[in-house]
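Protein folding task:
====================
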Amino acid sequence: MSDNEKNTGGQPKQSMQLRIDTSNSVTQYTNIFRFSRMPEEVLLDVGMTAVDIGSNPEGKAIPQMVMKYPTRLVMTYSTAKRMAISFAQLVKEYEDKFGPIPISSGGSNAVDGASPEGSS
């Protein structure tokens, strides 16, 4: 048995299959995001903008832009870095094939609970 077939304990390696289960996955469209930093974790909220009709104190209808964040992902900084690298590669491959992707001003992104800044 070669060294490549043994683990550090001298025992033969056991093969393991990877199975990806998406049976309980929920599909959600997103056009906005925000993230928050914690000492050991990154929180990524994803959602979408919607127009709602609110009212002022006099009862006059006023359209409002509402940013709804129904999904929060909590991850380590290592996972966040791998995700960032993967997204960068995905966007690069798309732009290499189809050209630059313009960044619209349709959504807003907030960092650490601050006022929305930037665009998605």
